[in-house]
Amino acid sequence: MCRQAPIRVPVRQWVLSLPYEIRYRLAWDGKLIAAVLAVFLRVVYGWYRRQARQQGHTDPRCGPVTFVQRFGSALNVNPHFHVLVADGAYVSDEQGRSTFVPASTLTDEAVQAIVETAARRVVRLLQRRGLLEQDATDPLWEDEPLLAKLTSASIQGRVATGERRGEGVRRLRVMDGDHLSFALKTSWRDQRRQLLDQLS
Hints:
- The protein is an alpha+beta fold and 200 residues long.
- It has two domains: 11-136, 2-Layer Sandwich (Alpha-Beta Plaits), CATH 3.30.70; 169-200, no CATH class.
- Helix content is 41%, strand content 23%.
- It contains six helices and seven strands; from the N terminus they run βααββββαααββα.
- A three-stranded antiparallel β-sheet has the order 1-3-2.
- α2 (30-54) runs antiparallel to α3.
- It is elongated and about 70 Å long.
- The N and C termini lie far apart (73 Å).
């Protein structure tokens, strides 16, 4: 058991959110969740390691903690990742002592490069597994069609069953502490038409 207190270092949170089609598969495919996370972490680690190497260090190591969140703010199905990473890298000297090397400032350009690289690699992963093919099998739909339908609707913020099937989920929000707001997940044009119909 480690008895040393952890070194205080800056920590950055990275959040990876994915398109609806990928969220659906992640909602029930644990192996795919692990694979997508591994792809994303390799991209992020690569950036941190390059930062340390540019400062003259060899064999830099990264330290993350990941929380796989399976729901969104409306408690809808929305698998995504919150990754806390020490904002730099650990390097060892000849005596084996570890030192933390802070990364340089993260620029908008670096974030864009990380996002684009991660997106390309996730797409390649899905292609290798045949998950982007038009006729790709959906084991959840084959085994549990109702669960597949509910999962898909939840991810899209839609009602899955009943007379409102396919419509946007209605939400109540408290705003400014004491005012209640009613929000529909429909377009403003649809809301305006409904309002005009009610007024006429």
